[in-house]
């Protein structure tokens, strides 16, 4: 079943008004770069695409005909034009980004029969947008030529996730933070979604402290107890509490799938937000730290 391997290409033959997108975040010592490989089968404007953004505020959108897109149904491997994305790394041949970054020591998000991906049991339900964490983290090596300068990613940290479906939610907040002095990776997403026709605020989040992974999501009782975004967010369930204080960074304008998977919605993402994060079990603090190169999106409903 595809829900157990969401990183593979999911689209059925002759699929209409549907999208898939793979998000790769690459963090060097003092710089962050992200690249999105995707495809939309919107009937009015079907095409493949690559989007890039970085922590200095640069962003670009590259369009390709469907004929230049390939994605495997048996492994994570996407090829768009001369660009390749896989479990082993990314190779870019774009006007504004050229080079290769390799992945090693990849930590995959765990899976089980009742929780095939980070969506947990919700993965078995028909949803407008499906979300999956592919690489909870990885080690990087290699370099990219970006805007006339070469960025070295040796010793950096990687992260990979994926979205696929008919459209993004009406509104959401999302962040990924790993720019800590310790081996830590944190992802939080809270979105207005509909589950079997019932509107809810769906939460999926994980905190990885070294080899220990914690999940705080709607399906294990997580709720938002304070929402002062874009400044502060607190979520908790019966056992854990995650307290996040954000300071906005330089934003980039990205295209996102709107109604019928058409890439006509504009959102803002930053890769340079500062996030002060505290993580508790009951009243015991398990972690406290600051990530300076944090990826953040806060999107209000505009449709």
Protein described:
The protein is mainly β and 303 residues long. It has one domain (19-299). Helix content is 0%, strand content 60%. The protein is built from no helices and 22 strands. The strands form two sheets. Strands 1, 2, 3, 4, 5, 6, 7, 8, 9, 10, 11 and 12 form a twelve-stranded antiparallel beta sheet that branches. Strands 13, 14, 15, 16, 17, 18, 19, 20, 21 and 22 form a ten-stranded antiparallel beta sheet that branches. The mean pLDDT is 95.
Low-confidence stretches: none
Order of helices and strands: EEEEEEEEEEEEEEEEEEEEEE
Number of domains: 1
Overall residue-averaged pLDDT value: 95
Helical fraction equals under 10%
Most strands sheet: 12 strands, antiparallel
End-to-end separation:
33 Å
Regarding quaternary structure, what we see is single chain
* CA gyration radius, whole angstroms: 18 Å
Number of strands: 22
What overall form do the CA principal axes indicate? globular
Structural class call reads mainly beta
Strand percent estimate: over 45%
Number of helices: 0
Question: Any chance you could write out the topology, listing elements then pairs?
Answer:
Layout: E1 19-27, E2 32-40, E3 47-54, E4 59-64, E5 69-71, E6 77-80, E7 83-86, E8 89-93, E9 97-108, E10 129-146, E11 149-152, E12 157-165, E13 172-177, E14 184-195, E15 198-209, E16 212-215, E17 223-228, E18 232-236, E19 240-247, E20 251-256, E21 265-281, E22 284-299
Antiparallel strand pairs: 1-2, 1-12, 2-3, 3-4, 5-6, 6-7, 7-8, 8-9, 9-10, 10-11, 10-12, 13-14, 13-22, 14-15, 15-16, 17-18, 18-19, 19-21, 20-21, 21-22
């Amino acid at each position: 079943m595809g829900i157990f391997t969401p990183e593979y290409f999911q689209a059925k033959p002759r699929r209409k008004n549907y999208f898939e997108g793979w998000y790769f975040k690459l963090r060097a010592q003092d710089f962050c770069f992200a690249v999105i490989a995707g495809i939309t089968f919107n009937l009015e404007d079907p095409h493949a695409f690559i989007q890039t953004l970085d922590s200095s505020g640069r962003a670009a959108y590259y369009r390709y005909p469907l004929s230049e897109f390939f994605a495997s149904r048996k492994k994570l491997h996407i090829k768009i034009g001369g660009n390749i994305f896989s479990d082993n790394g990314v190779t870019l041949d774009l006007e504004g980004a050229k080079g290769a970054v390799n992945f090693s020591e990849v930590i995959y998000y765990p899976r089980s029969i009742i929780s095939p991906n980070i969506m947990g049991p919700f993965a078995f339900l028909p949803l407008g947008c499906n979300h999956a964490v592919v690489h909870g983290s990885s080690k990087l090596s290699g370099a990219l030529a970006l805007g006339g300068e070469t960025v070295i990613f040796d010793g950096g940290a990687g992260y990979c996730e994926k979205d696929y479906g008919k459209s993004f939610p009406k509104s959401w907040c999302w962040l990924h933070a790993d720019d800590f002095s310790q081996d830590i990776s944190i992802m939080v997403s809270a979105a207005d979604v509909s589950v079997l026709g019932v509107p809810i605020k769906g939460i999926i989040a994980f905190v990885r402290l070294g080899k220990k992974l914690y999940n705080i999501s709607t399906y294990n009782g997580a709720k938002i107890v304070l929402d002062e975004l874009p400044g502060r967010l607190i979520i908790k369930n019966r056992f854990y509490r995650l307290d996040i204080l954000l300071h906005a960074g330089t934003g980039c304008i990205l295209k996102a799938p709107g109604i019928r998977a058409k890439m006509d919605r504009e959102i803002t993402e930053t890769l340079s937000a500062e996030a002060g994060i505290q993580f508790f079990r009951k009243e015991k603090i398990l972690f406290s730290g600051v990530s300076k190169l944090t990826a953040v999106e806060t999107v209000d409903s505009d449709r």
